Protein backbone atom coordinates (compact mmCIF):
# COMPACT_ATOMS: atom_id res chain seq x y z
CA UNK A 1 0.00 0.00 0.00
CA UNK A 2 1.38 3.41 -0.94
CA UNK A 3 2.12 5.89 1.82
CA UNK A 4 -0.42 8.51 0.61
CA UNK A 5 -3.18 5.90 0.34
CA UNK A 6 -2.33 4.64 3.83
CA UNK A 7 -2.45 8.15 5.32
CA UNK A 8 -5.78 8.94 3.58
CA UNK A 9 -7.31 5.68 4.80
CA UNK A 10 -6.31 6.52 8.38
CA UNK A 11 -7.87 9.99 8.12
CA UNK A 12 -11.10 8.55 6.71
CA UNK A 13 -11.27 5.83 9.35
CA UNK A 14 -10.65 8.41 12.08
CA UNK A 15 -13.70 10.40 10.93
CA UNK A 16 -15.91 7.28 10.63
CA UNK A 17 -14.67 6.01 13.99
CA UNK A 18 -15.41 9.33 15.72
CA UNK A 19 -18.97 9.68 14.36
CA UNK A 20 -19.86 6.05 14.92
CA UNK A 21 -18.50 6.30 18.46
CA UNK A 22 -20.56 9.38 19.22
CA UNK A 23 -23.69 7.79 17.78
CA UNK A 24 -23.23 4.55 19.70
CA UNK A 25 -22.31 6.34 22.93
CA UNK A 26 -25.94 7.37 23.46
CA UNK A 27 -27.21 3.79 23.11
CA UNK A 28 -24.35 2.42 25.20
CA UNK A 29 -24.99 4.85 28.05
CA UNK A 30 -28.66 3.84 28.18
CA UNK A 31 -27.75 0.16 27.95
CA UNK A 32 -25.06 0.45 30.63
CA UNK A 33 -27.16 2.40 33.15
CA UNK A 34 -30.21 0.18 32.72
CA UNK A 35 -27.98 -2.92 32.81
CA UNK A 36 -26.59 -1.87 36.19
CA UNK A 37 -30.13 -1.25 37.48
CA UNK A 38 -31.27 -4.67 36.23
CA UNK A 39 -28.29 -6.32 37.92
CA UNK A 40 -29.42 -4.72 41.19
CA UNK A 41 -33.15 -5.48 40.84
CA UNK A 42 -33.16 -8.26 43.46
CA UNK A 43 -31.28 -6.03 45.92
CA UNK A 44 -33.13 -2.73 45.51
CA UNK A 45 -36.78 -2.86 46.57
CA UNK A 46 -37.75 0.21 44.49
CA UNK A 47 -36.78 -1.57 41.26
CA UNK A 48 -38.58 -4.83 42.05
CA UNK A 49 -40.57 -5.65 45.19
CA UNK A 50 -38.89 -8.28 47.36
CA UNK A 51 -40.24 -11.80 46.91
CA UNK A 52 -42.37 -12.77 49.90
CA UNK A 53 -42.68 -16.28 51.39
CA UNK A 54 -45.89 -18.28 51.39
CA UNK A 55 -47.10 -21.02 53.70
CA UNK A 56 -46.54 -24.10 51.54
CA UNK A 57 -44.48 -25.26 48.58
CA UNK A 58 -46.84 -28.22 48.00
CA UNK A 59 -48.80 -27.31 44.87
CA UNK A 60 -51.54 -29.83 45.78
CA UNK A 61 -52.47 -27.59 48.72
CA UNK A 62 -52.66 -24.41 46.62
CA UNK A 63 -55.70 -22.56 45.42
CA UNK A 64 -56.50 -22.74 41.72
CA UNK A 65 -54.99 -20.19 39.33
CA UNK A 66 -58.50 -18.86 38.69
CA UNK A 67 -58.96 -18.14 42.41
CA UNK A 68 -55.52 -16.56 42.68
CA UNK A 69 -56.29 -14.40 39.62
CA UNK A 70 -59.55 -13.17 41.24
CA UNK A 71 -57.83 -12.49 44.55
CA UNK A 72 -55.07 -10.45 42.90
CA UNK A 73 -57.44 -8.40 40.72
CA UNK A 74 -59.70 -7.65 43.70
CA UNK A 75 -56.75 -6.68 45.86
CA UNK A 76 -55.33 -4.26 43.28
CA UNK A 77 -58.73 -2.76 42.41
CA UNK A 78 -59.64 -2.28 46.10
CA UNK A 79 -56.27 -0.78 47.04
CA UNK A 80 -56.15 1.47 43.95
CA UNK A 81 -59.66 2.13 42.59
CA UNK A 82 -58.21 3.94 39.55
CA UNK A 83 -56.83 0.54 38.45
CA UNK A 84 -60.34 -0.98 37.88
CA UNK A 85 -59.59 -1.51 34.16
CA UNK A 86 -56.18 -3.06 34.79
CA UNK A 87 -56.18 -6.84 34.36
CA UNK A 88 -53.70 -9.69 34.81
CA UNK A 89 -51.01 -9.96 32.14
CA UNK A 90 -49.11 -12.96 33.51
CA UNK A 91 -48.44 -15.03 36.60
CA UNK A 92 -45.02 -15.95 37.89
CA UNK A 93 -45.48 -19.11 39.96
CA UNK A 94 -42.82 -19.70 42.61
CA UNK A 95 -43.49 -23.09 44.22
CA UNK A 96 -40.26 -23.00 46.25
CA UNK A 97 -41.37 -19.70 47.81
CA UNK A 98 -45.02 -20.70 48.14
CA UNK A 99 -46.26 -17.68 46.19
CA UNK A 100 -47.58 -16.45 42.88
CA UNK A 101 -46.48 -13.06 41.54
CA UNK A 102 -49.29 -11.60 39.46
CA UNK A 103 -48.22 -8.94 36.97
CA UNK A 104 -50.76 -6.54 35.49
CA UNK A 105 -51.02 -5.17 31.95
CA UNK A 106 -50.65 -1.48 32.77
CA UNK A 107 -48.63 0.53 35.25
CA UNK A 108 -46.08 -2.12 36.26
CA UNK A 109 -48.23 -3.40 39.13
CA UNK A 110 -47.36 -6.62 40.93
CA UNK A 111 -49.46 -8.47 43.50
CA UNK A 112 -47.94 -11.37 45.44
CA UNK A 113 -50.39 -13.98 46.71
CA UNK A 114 -49.77 -16.91 49.03
CA UNK A 115 -50.51 -20.01 46.96
CA UNK A 116 -52.08 -21.97 49.81
CA UNK A 117 -54.03 -19.41 51.83
CA UNK A 118 -54.75 -16.88 49.08
CA UNK A 119 -53.52 -14.10 51.38
CA UNK A 120 -52.25 -11.00 49.57
CA UNK A 121 -48.64 -10.59 50.68
CA UNK A 122 -47.68 -7.53 48.65
CA UNK A 123 -49.11 -4.93 46.27
CA UNK A 124 -46.44 -2.76 44.73
CA UNK A 125 -45.02 -1.23 41.57
CA UNK A 126 -42.45 -3.27 39.67
CA UNK A 127 -40.14 -1.01 37.65
CA UNK A 128 -37.76 -3.75 36.49
CA UNK A 129 -39.96 -4.61 33.48
CA UNK A 130 -40.02 -0.97 32.36
CA UNK A 131 -36.24 -0.71 32.83
CA UNK A 132 -35.76 -3.90 30.80
CA UNK A 133 -37.87 -2.55 27.93
CA UNK A 134 -35.77 0.64 27.97
CA UNK A 135 -32.60 -1.48 28.12
CA UNK A 136 -33.42 -3.50 25.01
CA UNK A 137 -35.30 -0.79 23.06
CA UNK A 138 -38.66 -2.57 23.10
CA UNK A 139 -40.11 0.45 24.94
CA UNK A 140 -40.45 2.05 21.48
CA UNK A 141 -41.37 -1.07 19.49
CA UNK A 142 -40.17 -4.58 18.75
CA UNK A 143 -38.97 -3.36 15.35
CA UNK A 144 -36.89 -0.64 17.00
CA UNK A 145 -35.49 -3.24 19.41
CA UNK A 146 -34.40 -5.42 16.49
CA UNK A 147 -32.83 -2.53 14.55
CA UNK A 148 -31.18 -0.79 17.52
CA UNK A 149 -29.65 -3.94 19.03
CA UNK A 150 -28.25 -5.03 15.65
CA UNK A 151 -26.97 -1.49 15.01
CA UNK A 152 -25.34 -1.48 18.44
CA UNK A 153 -23.68 -4.87 17.92
CA UNK A 154 -22.45 -4.16 14.39
CA UNK A 155 -21.41 -0.65 15.39
CA UNK A 156 -19.27 -2.00 18.23
CA UNK A 157 -17.61 -4.45 15.87
CA UNK A 158 -16.95 -1.56 13.46
CA UNK A 159 -15.41 0.48 16.29
CA UNK A 160 -13.17 -2.44 17.27
CA UNK A 161 -11.87 -2.92 13.72
CA UNK A 162 -11.42 0.79 12.99
CA UNK A 163 -9.80 1.24 16.40
CA UNK A 164 -7.33 -1.53 15.64
CA UNK A 165 -6.57 0.06 12.26
CA UNK A 166 -6.12 3.48 13.90
CA UNK A 167 -3.67 1.89 16.30
CA UNK A 168 -1.80 -0.23 13.73
CA UNK A 169 -1.89 2.17 10.74
CA UNK A 170 0.51 4.79 12.18
CA UNK A 171 3.01 2.02 12.94
CA UNK A 172 2.88 0.93 9.30
CA UNK A 173 3.43 4.55 8.20
CA UNK A 174 6.50 4.86 10.46
CA UNK A 175 7.90 1.61 9.11
CA UNK A 176 7.31 2.71 5.50
CA UNK A 177 8.97 6.09 6.16
CA UNK A 178 12.00 4.36 7.72
CA UNK A 179 12.31 1.97 4.78
CA UNK A 180 11.94 4.87 2.33
CA UNK A 181 14.79 6.87 3.95
Describe this entry's structure for a reader:
The chain is α+β, with helices and mostly antiparallel strands and 181 residues long. The chain folds into two domains: 1-44 and 132-181; 49-126, Nuclear Transport Factor 2, Chain: A. 55% of the residues lie in helices and 14% in strands. The protein has four helices and four strands, in the order ααββββαα. The chain has helices spanning 3-39, 65-79, 128-136, 142-180, and strands spanning 88-94, 99-104, 109-114, 120-125. It has a four-stranded antiparallel beta sheet, covered by helices on one side.
Structure at a glance:
This protein is an alpha+beta fold. The protein has 2 domains: 94 residues; 78 residues, Nuclear Transport Factor 2, Chain: A (Roll). The chain contains 4 helices and 4 strands; from the N terminus they run ααββββαα.
What is this structure's SSE topology?
Blueprint: H1 3-39, H2 65-79, E1 88-94, E2 99-104, E3 109-114, E4 120-125, H3 128-136, H4 142-180
Antiparallel strand pairs: 1-2, 2-3, 3-4
